[in-house]
Amino acid sequence: MFCSTKRVFLMLFMGGVLLGSGCGRSPEKVAKAEFFLPEIPMMISSPQERAVYLGRHYWDRYDFQDTSLVFSSQVTEQAFANFLQVLGKIPADECKLAVNGLLDRASEADSVVFDRFVDLFDKYLYDPNSPMRNEEMYIPVLEYLVASSRVPEIEKVRPRDRLTWALRNRVGTRATDFTYTLASGAKGTLYGVRADYTILFFNNPDCPACKQMREEICASPLLTQGIEQGWLKILAVYPDEDLTAWKNYRKNIPPQWINGYDASLKLRNGELYDLKAIPTLYLLDRNKTVLIKDGLSVGQLIAYLEQLMAERHSRSGQS
To answer: What is the Cα–Cα distance from 304 to 309, expressed in whole angstroms?
Structure first.
């Protein structure tokens, strides 16, 4: 339904038109509406600078006064999805400026328009089932809502809570330590896991997606090699209380993994990690600094590690 990233960025670097808008339209006119990208000045030539310019000016030609257009999936929602792709190509400070600029213009136009764009941010960046889920891009949205004088205090409760969780165990910070219990009754801690990299795998025995992730991890030559060579460890943690189900499922977990459960139930009760969906994947470095939080897929972790390995190999070749 939505334009591919390739098409959006071909237009980004060459200039062009992607969809358009008007005001006070009938449903038929909304269906024919288009969204026009801003014209990027010719003197801006580098891809990075063009992406930054587009982030800042993406919505310049959009009619925020048109309350019917804002609900068009073919125009506004498609343009919004492409806007998120642009945000993914620019620095964090520019991403925040672009988000704030969009929400400023939406809030100045109409409460319906503002609420619609907030809903779109929630749908694409926060929903656990969204393939575009991205907490780092969602944080500026939450910060805007919490700080905005236009948002009633009662409506700040949810974004304030979400912001608290988004800032916890954030990429670049040290993951929260916790204690796990093995089948033998022995206990260990996350910080006690010694390896260059640790995959933290929150899972549930009755979860088909968990089974799929486990199989994908086992099928990866890189991850298998990492476990065998000792630079990677996998800590699988069951956060719930049905220990019978967990014990019956133990044979499905590779013996090379650390397989434990949370006897304190602090994980399930939401005191340490935001487990809004199971399975949940984290990738941590030697110091347990978060490299990937709530990973979208095993493939994302593999791609990240492959890049690290390639960079390390390149540095060693130059020395």
So the answer is: 9
Query: What is the pairing mode between strands 232-238 and 258-261?
Result: parallel
Distance CA 139, CA 99 (A): 10
Check residue 57 and give its pLDDT.
97
Which is more confidently placed, 31 or 183? 183
Per-residue pLDDT band at 296 (split at 50, 70, 90): confident
In terms of DSSP bridges, do strands 258-261 and 280-285 run parallel, antiparallel, or are they unpaired? unpaired
DSSP per-residue letters across 156-216: GHHHHHHHHHHHTT-TTSBPPP-EEE-TTS-EEEGGG--SSEEEEEE--TT-HHHHHHHHH
Of 124, 142, 167, the one marking the end of a domain is 167
Do 32 and 114 lie in one domain? The reply is yes
Is the confidence at residue 4, as pLDDT, over 60? Answer: no
Which domain does 21 fall in, by range? 5-167
Say if residue 226 is in the same domain as residue 311: yes
Rounded to 5 degrees, what are φ and ψ at 166? -65, -35
Same domain for 259 and 155: no
Query: What gap in Å lies between CA 263 and CA 243, rounded to an integer?
Result: 9
